[in-house]
Amino acid sequence: MIDSLDDMLPLVDEAGHVTGAATRRECHGGSRWLHPVVHLHVFNAAGDVYLQKRPDWKDIQPGKWDTACGGHVDLGESVEQALRREVREELGITDYEPRRIAQYVYDSRRERELVFVHTAVYDQPIHPDATELAGGRFWSRTEIAENIGRGVFTPNFESEWRDIVLPAVDKP
Predict the structure, then answer these.
(1) Distance CA 167, CA 161 (A)
(2) pTM score
(3) CATH of the structural domain 8-169, one choice from 3.30.70.920, 3.30.200.20, 3.90.79.10, 3.90.1640.10
(4) So where are the chain's domains?
(5) What is the mean pLDDT of residues 1-14?
(6) SS3 letters for 80-116?
(7) Per-residue pLDDT tens digits for 121-149
């Protein structure tokens, strides 16, 4: 499966208000137009975190390990609707309780995303969709720490893990 570069995405301001629309191609083609995405970090009861392996056909960060689930908010869709759709499509999970822990602007040379970050605890089998992902598995915090900065993970995951997720889940 290949993402359609002609899919329409909403353009937003930093508060998340829709200001327009553009294609995925335009958003990922260096325009740096701000568009919303959702991320879900899935933990098991032992505190391990599930990561997906991005397929080699992805236009951004192919072949790297990334957040359990991530995807664009489609034009006309709410953040909550996008999260439920993406998690169902990518991981086959429908019975979970997401908790929003942050939103921030991710800025790279190629794109700008307004990222809505969520966590959930899930201890049932996860069945990654083979047309969307190249697999997935649970990683211990030690395994993640040993691989940070080695080109194993997407830069977005590394910064989000370090700056947002760990501080949020380590709160007493």
Answers:
(1) 9
(2) 0.92
(3) 3.90.79.10
(4) 8-169
(5) 82
(6) HHHHHHHHHHHHCCCCCCCEEEEEEEEECCCCEEEEE
(7) 999 999 999 988 999 999 999 999 999 99
